[in-house]
Amino acid sequence: MQTKRVRFTFNRGGYFYFSRRVPSDLVEHYRYPRIVQALNTQHVSVARSRASMMASQLDAYWAQIRLAHANLPGKHLLKQKQTHADPASIASSPSASVSLTEALSVYLERKGVGKGKTFHAAAQRACGYLVDAVGLKDLHQYTRADALSFRDFLIERGLVGSSVTRVLNSINSVFNFACSELALDLKNPFHGMYHDRKAGVARRLPIPDLELKKIQALCCSRNDDCRWLIALISDTGLRLSEAAGLMLSDIKLREVYPHLVVQPNALRSLKTSGSKRVVPLVGASLWAAERLYETMPSLTGPAFPRYAKSGQVQANSASAALNKWLKGYVSDGCTIHSFRHSMRDRLRAVECPTEMVDQIGGWSHSTVGQGYGSGYPLEAMSRYLSKIVL
Description:
single chain; mainly alpha; three-stranded antiparallel β-sheet; 14 helices; 46% helix
């Protein structure tokens, strides 16, 4: 008996099954008058999505059968008259594939929950590139030749190696996730493609200490919110989005060791799970945090309202504005992100343990062991950071 909550399904033992009667005019093409297939889920929303997709594909497939057997005028003149189902027809059966659009929808609806708009935009952009390069197809119709053409399309478009990598990673994620979630037995033609990851990539340079010291002095002199943001980054090594998206409640000045709490909030998520951390405040960063406290009497809301007007951190706007100002005071090739490179070098210079460097900067762990325990205490990190103050 079909369930009322999910059309074209019935439930047995807690699991959903797809069930649909074969139309009477098409029964001769099937061994049984009813199609029944396990949906491999106990969740109503997942069952509804899979059942709807299967029903739509069946309707399309049955329309093709009817058309192929219709008494069409001039049918005898067709170049490819088929009397038997060909492999392509079999491959396009309801359980074999979905369109790229459907795969993207499943990917964003399920894996995109709680992710920022950047995550959604990256997946949509990558799929858009794929359609521009080789067209919109069902997943099973994409071939290795299509994948290679897609890679060449990205390179000819002028994308640097790191950008090509990101686009290909997005396509691989969409393809693999859809195959896993929808139980599709398909080989991913985009997996393992070679390309030069360093092609056209400009090497990010650290900011020399003399320039860094001058910038910090200029920040104190100008003493406005944009300079506070730069100063805050300069002695913490925070990513720009992490700093621009801070809440005032994340700034802890009345502690034995003043520090920032870097954690997800309504303005922005974090790049990785390891990015959630506490970072001691020293030098110019401590000065910037104190300025924020002096000018924000309520001590609630975004630390940098200028870049949080739309309810999400405007990291691109912040990057453009701050880099424009920095350009006149730093060497060629240095940007706002160069403060993170400088932080790594400055901590190396005072022989800070590599594990602590990773913890301060929120860099990914290189070994499983680094993920054990609670990490270095605030006091130890504060001691090493105090050594790098200019």
